[in-house]
Amino acid sequence: MAKVLEPIKIVPASIAVAITLIIWFVIPVPSGVAPNAWHLLALFVGTIAAIIGKALPIGAVSILAISLVALTGVTNPENSKAALLDALSGFSNDLIWLIGISIMISMSLSKTGLGSRIGYFLISFFGKKTLGIAYSLVFSEMFLAPVTPSNTARGGGIIHPIMRSIASSFNSSSKEGTSNKIGTYLALVNYNTNPITSAMFITATAPNPLIIALIYQGTSPGQYISWISWAVAAFVPAIICLIVMPLVVFVLYPPQIKQTPDAPVFAKERLKELGPISLAEKVTMGVFVLLLLLWAGVPAAIFGDSFAVQPTTAAFIGLSVLIITGVLSWNDILKNTGAWDTVVWFAALVMMATYLGKLGLVDWLALKVGSSIQGLGVSWALGAGILLLVYVYSHYFFASTTAHITAMFGAFFAAGIALGTPVMLLALTLAFSSSLMMSLTHYGTGTAPIIFGSGYTTLGQWWKTGFVMSVVNLIIFVFVGALWWKFLGFW
Known about the structure:
The chain is built from 23 helices and no strands. By secondary structure, it is mostly helical. The radius of gyration is 23 Å and the shape is globular.
């Protein structure tokens, strides 16, 4: 039987092409902007439109973007060889490989069963009440977050099956119309944990290193945020959010079952099925501890800067140990299409964003946005607040966090700086809100369709909870976070 072709989707592709051609040929190049910078913007906006419209998978769209940048020579009109090297330059970015390799490493959590063991272990201790189960899910995901750059794999692939098995044990089923027993509450907690944990670590979701690159490119001299600096900055406001969130959801949609004395028994039965901790799990735990120590800069802190290990180097070391010990095979690595896909799309988007900055387009956009807000005659604090709200709530129009960040972060960051906002205050606020905005919709990130698709919640319940949590999370990060960062001396 002949294979069925899977060509590009005509309607979204046509829209993306039309947008590209209109910007390139119809809209005049603004004063102060180089023609090739404007043409790169046309390709960039068309790429984002294709990603939003899902004309092709994001990796495939990125291959087309790399091809067009090289073919048109927009980064270097006079030298086709240099333009090709520019188009491929994203693959030399160490942060791209940090995320790609970390996704490969995180496979060991599901392959060995360690991720499930952690979840059931916590439920066996704290699961006598529904709130206890909720917090067990929350902190299970938090423990996994530093080493699982795929927030979809973490929240949807590891935690969600545990959540569903717990709900089923209490006969709470979407098919039987009994979701309100406990399933609705746990599903909403399951999902709304994901944006918060994604904000906690650079390695907790794939777009975070893109943000690091955009912040570095948008500051002079370049401000680099290390893995440990990000984690320390996020820790206090994120922990408060993780504590508050299950309580807020409990108020919004209280479960019918509030006492769960059988949950620890159920969890212990699942742990018994998993058996004793295997050698593979022990190796995986050892690798994760090693990675956290290296990412936190412990060797350099103890023995001096000559013992510093770059985060991406540490990730390669961790993956090497897992391969040498047989916890992961090379076939496992080759079959991890998500990791290789991330490397490809990440390389393309970082490349385009980098050259938009180098060619002066981001600065031009920032001046336009900044002058518009300055025209309102408001202070930098109010102006930055307006930028933040527009940035976060425009996520209703995006089905990809990566596309949203790529399209808007650089310009909004530059505009905030132009308003006089303290650089690190602005950088951290926008960086963390880039994850927090995932809570808004059932399509805002890859985890959402998995959990929403299980049927435990209605669309109204999902959107209401997402909006309320976005407000709560932003308030905590903006006010508590700002005080914490001031205490740390970040601004």
